[in-house]
Amino acid sequence: MSLTISPKWLQSYCQIDATTEQLASMLSDSGFETEVIDDLYIDPKLVIGEVLQVEKHPNADKLNLCKVDIGGEVLSIVCGCPTVPSARLVIVAPVGSTLPGMILKPVKLRGVDSEGMICSLQEIGLVEEGGKGIYHVKEDLSAGQRLIDVLEHDARLLDIDVTPNRGDCLSVYGIARDLAASQKATLSSYPSGIDLGLVVKSSELLGRMADGVSGYDAMTGTLDRTASPPLYMINRLRQAGMGLNHVVVDILNYVMLEIGQPMHAFDQRYLDGPLSVTQGGEQSLKLLNDEDYKPKAWDLMVCDQKGPQALAGIMGGMDSRMLPDSDTIQLESAVFFPRYIAKSLRNCQLNSDASYRYERGVSIDLNQTALAYAAKLLERYAGASFTAYQSYKLDAELVSVSISVDKINRYLGTTIREDEVQDILQRLGMDVSANWKVSVPSYRYDVSMDVDIIEEVARLYGYNNIALEPMHSELNPAPLSRDTTMQCKQAMVQAGYQEVVQFSFVSEQLINIFQGEGVPVVLRNPIHAEYNYMRTHIWQSLILAAQHNYQRQITDMKLFEVGETFSSLKDEISEPTSLGAICIGQVNHGYGHHDECVDYYTMQSLARTALSAYGIHQFLLQECSDGALHPKQSANIVSEGVVLGTIGMLNPNVCQVLSLPDTGLMVLHLDRLASGQQNPIRIPSKYPAVSRDVTITVGLDVKAGDMQNDIVSADIPYLKTIVLQDIYSQSSDAVNITWRIGFQSSEKTLSDKSVEKSMLVIRGLLDNYTQS
Amino acid sequence: MDASVKACQSALADLEANDKLIAHEVDQLKSFYLGKKSQISQQYQSLAKLPPEDKKSQGKALNDVRMALNALIQEGYARAEKIAVNKLLGKGVDITAASKVRKPGSLHPLTIAYQEMVAILQTMGFVIESGPHIEDDYHNFTALNFPEDHPARTMHDTFYLKDSERLLRTHTSTVQVHILNRQEPPLRIATPGRVYRCDHDPTHSPMFNQLECLVVEPGCNFSQLKWLLLKFCEAYLGKPLDYRFRPSFFPFTEPSAELDIVWGDKWLELAGCGMVHPNVLSEAGIDTETFQGFAFGIGIDRLAMMKYGINDLRVLYENHVEFLEQF
């Protein structure tokens, strides 16, 4: 969470002479990543004006002519707001001044000159919505004061990122305290409040408190219903991104922003009897967000005699909320243990500024200071007076941690002296005893072990003051291993394929078209509702990549991806890795030759290339029943009974559904390929090779692959190569298949006789396929 | 001159005149005038029947004719070859017409970055390890010192599986948990891989690639961590860097830091790092008195983008062919 505050406000607590940039860099260096950002522009010409006289406009019923004193000068201003007759102090934008989106020019309104404008908060940009009518200044200000001064406005703000461990720094005071420690600057004390001891002590405001409460102060009082927060407060709340609400809520928010204590105000008219905090409960509660909340067993609930009135530390109840006509209040300034709030929050997800602070830890010593301060502001700005007060507080033990300077230096690789360590810890409010026991302030929930102290020392010593220390180690090389996946990727690149990296998220449609093994894995909270599945097949991702390109007029593409797919088998998740490839359009086989479009054999050839990276050159091609593929142009690649992969053309029906042209696909299941065994090296023969062609006429159902396998597996003497030369359709029911068969011996020049002997066996094998 | 020599000569001349003087045609002539069934072969055969005194003179005459024919044929071959070569030499192409390009394939920039980073880390003695993407709460959070319900868990926008307590890993530190549980220190491991967070804008992708490095050795310290991380980044980016280390917070390290470098004209967050939290080491059964650990994590995507000057992370995962073919 980031805290956006004005440097002036910060410097009012931490006395340090620095520019905004310098402050940002000091904060960043001490662990609060800070950016300087531009705030809303407030024109210095905007001033407080006193309305001296209001008359009806001679030519328009709805307009008024006002004389407004802006300090030594009286302007004539035409104003359309119906509340202007009751206004005393207002904000005036004289002619020539700038408001968001406009520059005021002299105007005649229905024939009368207007020398300026009486502004609403929205026109100045101080509120985003509401506040449309002119703003009635109720503070004790005088005509001519510049708005920019009244607002204590800074043109630029500090946007401070507070890490989740630093709940103590979720306020201006908290940041100032840490900055003072890191910069050795003087820190002012907390803002003063009313003397709580002077408010009538009551024993009827609070009941029983559950375990998760470490402190709970309650105070009742009355209120001026017409009050509004002062301008500087409105401005600071706006800077921090908080909108305006009820004046009491605004003031409590302001106190939280300033010193870090969340507080809650109940409309006391609605409460019945003392407030207690219970855990869980049967009765549900209508929350401020208008939802009925059924308390969970672990939730802390603030209850009166009727039932729950607030989800403690997280959100108040709808019925007891502050309303415009509320005139009596009961304030809550409580401390809840972080883990209770955290547990509730994880379940209900009702994040608020209060819950954010409570789950990160609010100091157990802060709630009375905050209550007194809030009361003082309420007295001053909301006409409040307080009638009764009660306090509950659990005794708490302070945390202390043992540390040794030696360990600090060993851990950090530094030579920081004992007195430096002591100084750093004292600046952080940590007392160090003679035997190096460090007592931790109650607001530092993040410090409980010696390593936490080490981090604090390093942080204030300065991470950048810690030297770089070269590392030495034993030279112990790991055995060289071949990265077959990378070799395979290289083979794909050489074949002209481009590697893609796709998200693992896919749609239900693709899950249904391309079926992987096992049950698909579904996400509970996907980024896009449509892409809520983890891919079960690598083709699902490749199709998305192909569609993305095809829709952008890329008609030829050859893409591949190596990645995990996901499925669940008997509640076990499996994540096999596969290589997928997709080919669309022209194959680009060479220079200047006629175009060749992707077909089944393109994919088969690709599979041969990719598998050769794994040393696999022999395999069977068997019919495959994948419905996503063309039933007669697809095959499983099988070796020793294991399906290593699948190739084929996308089923024309699927092409239509996916709006893709003819598409070739390949998948190899890399986990099933033995990783990169180097085949034995062959020495080329010194003797000449001989080749013979043989042509055979067979029926259409005969598979060339079967013939080839028969010959290869027949152990024929001197057989070296067998290459399919041609398949020629001789008639409607027969084809001629021509093979070129090569022979070679590593020991001698082959005689015609021995070649013929081998050819005889081959012809015998081929004859089995001829039509009878 | 013999009639057949004359005829052969004129046949050759005819062939040449008709632009048909090729080796094959000369073969035909050779066969006709000198082959087994040629006139001269028959005349040689009938020579046997002549009286001896005629045999000699006739024989000589036939030999002369045969030699003359042979010479003509040989000349015909030479001529045919010359004509063929001249024809080839005459064939021209438009050397300026553009040929087709055989488009080379390409590795994805993330793969190139991965390869380069792994190469650097291997020279620094790191062993590359990997692990599952779908994890349980224990490996992603609890074992890494994220207490249950702790707000630090909300720092990671976690994807959860439907009807299951499982999740998509939000960092590859999960792999460290697996390795620490099955290997004895000392160790240096690097765990690159895909990680997932539900966040999508120009600088955040719901899936990205992270590389985490872990050193567990007796006596390793924060100064060495600073040195090692900086050397790695400088090696990958190929130049000395203007840097700062900034205190930060990660549940699994204490002290924790972030490395910022000056890139262009501003500070850019490059890596998170820190001394491994003793709770993490103890959870894996490692004696924290003997062993210390440090770890750092960087976004492979982030570093690759810096190297290639890419501003929008999303372009890496759109896989537009015209983007890919540049690598």
From TrEMBL, chain A:
Intracellular or extracellular location(s): Cytoplasm
The B5 domain, residue ranges: 396-468
Gene3D superfamilies given in the database record: 3.30.56.10, Bira Bifunctional Protein, Domain 2, Ferrodoxin-fold anticodon-binding domain, Nucleic acid-binding proteins, Phenylalanyl-trna Synthetase, Chain B, domain 3
The keyword Cytoplasm belongs to this UniProt entry's keyword annotation: yes
SUPFAM superfamilies: Anticodon-binding domain of PheRS, Class II aaRS and biotin synthetases, Nucleic acid-binding proteins, PheT/TilS domain, Putative DNA-binding domain
GO molecular function: phenylalanine-tRNA ligase activity
Protein name: Phenylalanine--tRNA ligase beta subunit
Annotated organism of origin: Candidatus Synchoanobacter obligatus
Automatic annotation (TrEMBL), chain B:
Catalyzed reaction equations: tRNA(Phe) + L-phenylalanine + ATP = L-phenylalanyl-tRNA(Phe) + AMP + diphosphate + H(+)
Residues of the Aminoacyl-transfer RNA synthetases class-II family profile domain: 120-318
Residue sites binding Mg(2+) per the record: E254
Cofactor entry: Mg(2+)
Keyword NADP: no
EC number(s) per entry: 6.1.1.20
Enzyme class: ligase
Gene Ontology MF term list: phenylalanine-tRNA ligase activity
Localisation: Cytoplasm
Family annotation (Pfam families): Phe_tRNA-synt_N, tRNA-synt_2d
Cofactor binding comment, as recorded: Binds 2 magnesium ions per tetramer.
Keywords: Aminoacyl-tRNA synthetase, ATP-binding, Cytoplasm, Ligase, Magnesium, Metal-binding, Nucleotide-binding, Protein biosynthesis
NCBIfam families reported in the protein's UniProt record: pheS
Similarity comment: Belongs to the class-II aminoacyl-tRNA synthetase family. Phe-tRNA synthetase alpha subunit type 1 subfamily.
Record-linked PANTHER family: PHENYLALANINE--TRNA LIGASE, MITOCHONDRIAL, PHENYLALANYL-TRNA SYNTHETASE
Assembly with partners or alone: Tetramer of two alpha and two beta subunits.
Annotated protein name in UniProt: Phenylalanine--tRNA ligase alpha subunit
Organism the protein comes from: Candidatus Synchoanobacter obligatus
